[in-house]
Amino acid sequence: METPEDDRLMTPGEVAAIFGVNPKTVTRWERAGKLRAIRTLGGHRRFLASEVRRLRETGRPPDPA
C-alpha cells in the first residue's frame, strides 16, 4: 500500500543523488521515456518518489542515454 511519502515529488538533483549520476542524466532518462516526469507550473521536472523507489529496488537504474 502506498503512503503519502510515495506521493512526494523529487527534483532531478535528488533522483541523481540516489543513483549516483549527474542531474542532466536524469533529465535525459526522462526525455528518453525511461523515467516519467511531472512538470511544475514553472516547467521544472519532478519525479514521483514511488517510481524512483521502484527503479532503485530493481537494482538497475535506467540505462544512461
Would you spell out the secondary-structure blueprint of this structure?
Elements: E1 9-10, H1 12-19, H2 23-31, E2 38-39, E3 45-48, H3 49-57
Helix pairs in contact: 1-2
Give keywords.
single chain; alpha+beta; 65 residues; globular; 12% strand
Q: Estimate the strand proportion.
A: 5-15%
Strand order, sheet with most strands: 1-3-2
Radius of gyration: 11 Å
Most strands sheet: 3 strands, antiparallel
Integer average pLDDT? 85
How far the N terminus sits from the C terminus, by CA atoms, comes to: 32 Å
Number of strands: 3
Structure description:
- The structure is a single chain.
- The chain has 3 helices and 3 strands; from the N terminus they run βααββα.
- With 65 residues, the protein is of the alpha+beta class.
- A 3-stranded antiparallel sheet has the order 1-3-2.
- Helix 1 (12-19) packs across helix 2 (23-31).
- The longest helix has 9 residues, at 23-31.
- The radius of gyration is 11 Å and the shape is globular.
- The termini are far apart.
